[in-house]
Amino acid sequence: MSLMGIDIGTTGVKATVFDENGVILARAYEEYPLLFPFPGACELDSNAVIDATMRVIRDAARQAAEPISVIGIASQGEAFTPISRDGKVLGNIMVSSDARASSLVEPWSQNFGVERLYQITGHTPYSMYSLYKMLWLKEHQPENWNNTWKFLFCQDLIAWHLTGEAKTDMTMAARSMLFDIRKKKWSTEILDALGLSVNRLPEVVRSGEPVGAVKTSIATSLGLSTPTLVSVCGHDQPVGALGCGAASPGLAAYSIGTTECVCPSIERAILNSDLMKANLATYPHVFGDAYTTVAFSITGGSVLRWVRDNIAIHEVEEALRTAKDPYDRIIESASPDPSKVVLLPHFGPTGTPHFDAHGVGVIFGLTLSTSRAEVLRAFLDGITYEMKWNLEILKQAGFQLTNLRAVGGGAKNEKWMQIKADILGIPLTTMKVTEATCMGAALLAAHGAGIMNLEKSINSWAVPIRTFQPKEEFHSFYDQRFRLYKEIYEALDKARKINANLDSLTQT
Fold first, then answer.
1. DSSP string, 406-468
2. With a threshold of 0.90, does the pTM exceed it?
3. CATH class for domain 2-250?
């Protein structure tokens, strides 16, 4: 018996097969391109995501050479695909950084009641959430809106393709801002205000609960030799937190991928003005009756991808010649010392705490003597300063974190882990399996199918490897740079508001 976990991300999809002891038997990965059809828009081709996911399932199943009993699926939050009754895709996936609905957020939210919206959903208004993207679809593509049978989130889309069942879990439902996090059901009050009937949304089940078996015809094409149960397991961040064993007080998962995110657990739902002001959401976790929050930078890893594609041409070519990871080569080429250059990594909409739909990147402190290595190091430092800001806010909100369990592709590089520990001032522990989201999804699916005990399995599967302690000698420098980082952002924000006011005056 083997278990498969799938992680459908913003830039690619992973499938990993585990045995009953958490040993990896096979893995497969495929990237897909982001699409930018007009300013503010950022999409994925839904059919391309389906096709890529089927290929990684097939590849991983073939490598494993063992019958796969369950498939657990986790995915990026907020993003959905409208599906017609005959199964046709009616629109592309609008990913988290898609800001097309930004002008609709404030008027709709003010009309509904911002405080009321927060008390129901545990989330504060922002263009990334499904509610506002659906509102945009309704206003700008009414034909597609009217012809939609179901709005399916990424995990639901794949589960539906495999089984024919349209179901989601509570974590994904919550990230839509259409879900009552305390009643744990779709909010009729919000749906009525949006003009959306509940039967056009997937049925909500507990994370890991089986939604059905893979259809025979599809199972044959994927090389699945036995009846395989499929589960929707949830939002990738809490699924990954479970997968790395960061589900107890003092611990949090630090996911280092396309989005950088810190995800702790909470015993109960906490909704207060401090969390609301900092845009820190509260929503159900993927296990038991626990809750979670996420402090995140949407463009974290995406900025390194931009560096890979636009600046680090030499490193990419060398990586291809030597069969190395291009990101490892970029990190190796960065200065070993903290950079005097300061980078703001907002190459698009930001995450917490700003929720700035019009974020822009800044490189500050360039001189004629600035080296290329210093600039590359500035990117590594700046991405981490943004997460330091988030950790400060979590601490002020009462989250006393003593250790971060680092997972995701970025956690594989020791140099970057030490940089992050030095800047954040908190120990970072790497795990034996860095793809914690796939592991968490596989465990949730096995638990939901009744073939494994979740708590016992997590304790044996989530194996720490190394802890990176912050180096005292860098604290003073990084603290000074961090204060400068915050000042630059605040000055930039003020300048943009002045320019906006000037633009409105000249237009009138």
1. EESGGGG-HHHHHHHHHHHTS-EEEES-S-HHHHHHHHHHHHHTTSS-HHHHHHHH--EEEEE
2. no
3. alpha beta
